[in-house]
């Protein structure tokens, strides 16, 4: 008879999901995803159910990786009008199945997975696309993704200056306190962005917050928000004058307003650069438009489950 599925809570996920272990697994997953059939990744475009009455969305993100023999689906909700400042705007759960027989093996908190795997993929893109002389990191937004990106980027790179802008100074100060490092709080997004070598946009904005005229030529931008076809973070000038990379061409072209509305041409997937079939044009102004992929959740959940199992063996 099947045993009951394990429940793996956020604090346990946090413990087992280190960037040093996660990043190489995600690199392999991105390569497999961009290798078509050969890569053994099955990942349909996610289903999104708008909950318009409450300005919310429910997303279902299934994937199977033959290389990892791992089968999961994430269920994620995200709400524009948070009803409480205590409640995160994004909440998620990952279900991990035994791929040989379909048995549900674990129910895993998906919030930490979402925050960390997104930041980890941005570090992968940044390693490939930033200038080798990059010194200044700028983060627009002060929520969960802003913080996970700060943590991942300070671990993986050595920037000499880190700047942040948020809509309110109070939010920016709260962020700086949570981050714990030396951070310059900027009063306007333009002040934060001017002269920055690497920029992260991690906002729930539906209108551009980053404008091409502000951006230093040769900068690299990780654009994390604008995951709905009518949401924007970047303006048309920036979209059209930069080299545009994505996680999934199919998903980004369908889901991100920055691409749908600007009609900017996609150069390549990050997985194609990693495979060596597309160049990393790091001397140009580059954008990594991330929409988030289920396969990233699959490899993250498997890492957590395997580590948890090993540590719970009698
Ligand atoms: N690419 C990916 O894989 C993923 C993308 N996301 C997206 O990343 C973005 C950030 O997510 P979280 O940090 O989890 O959300 P959050 O709610 O924790 O933080 C959102 C931040 O955006 C700011 N913000 C909201 N409206 C704004 C506006 N009009 N102008 C400027 N700033 C504004 C808030 O003040 C806050 O600092 C969202 O758009 C989310 O949907 C989230 C998960 C994965
Ligand atoms: O990849 C994800 O997970 C998400 N991406 C866009 C917004 C909701 C969550």
Automatic annotation (TrEMBL):
<comment type="subunit">
    <text>Homodimer. Binds the thyroid hormone triiodothyronine (T3); T3 binding inhibits enzymatic activity.</text>
</comment>
<comment type="similarity">
    <text>Belongs to the ornithine cyclodeaminase/mu-crystallin family.</text>
</comment>
<keyword id="KW-0521">NADP</keyword>
<dbReference type="GO" id="GO:0047127">
    <property type="term" value="F:thiomorpholine-carboxylate dehydrogenase activity"/>
</dbReference>
<dbReference type="InterPro" id="IPR003462">
    <property type="entry name" value="ODC_Mu_crystall"/>
</dbReference>
<dbReference type="Pfam" id="PF02423">
    <property type="entry name" value="OCD_Mu_crystall"/>
</dbReference>
<keyword id="KW-0520">NAD</keyword>
<dbReference type="GO" id="GO:0042403">
    <property type="term" value="P:thyroid hormone metabolic process"/>
</dbReference>
<protein>
    <recommendedName>
        <fullName>Ketimine reductase mu-crystallin</fullName>
        <ecNumber>1.5.1.1</ecNumber>
        <ecNumber>1.5.1.25</ecNumber>
    </recommendedName>
</protein>
<keyword id="KW-0963">Cytoplasm</keyword>
<dbReference type="GO" id="GO:0070324">
    <property type="term" value="F:thyroid hormone binding"/>
</dbReference>
<dbReference type="GO" id="GO:0005737">
    <property type="term" value="C:cytoplasm"/>
</dbReference>
<keyword id="KW-0560">Oxidoreductase</keyword>
<dbReference type="GO" id="GO:0050241">
    <property type="term" value="F:pyrroline-2-carboxylate reductase activity"/>
</dbReference>
<dbReference type="InterPro" id="IPR036291">
    <property type="entry name" value="NAD(P)-bd_dom_sf"/>
</dbReference>
<dbReference type="InterPro" id="IPR023401">
    <property type="entry name" value="ODC_N"/>
</dbReference>
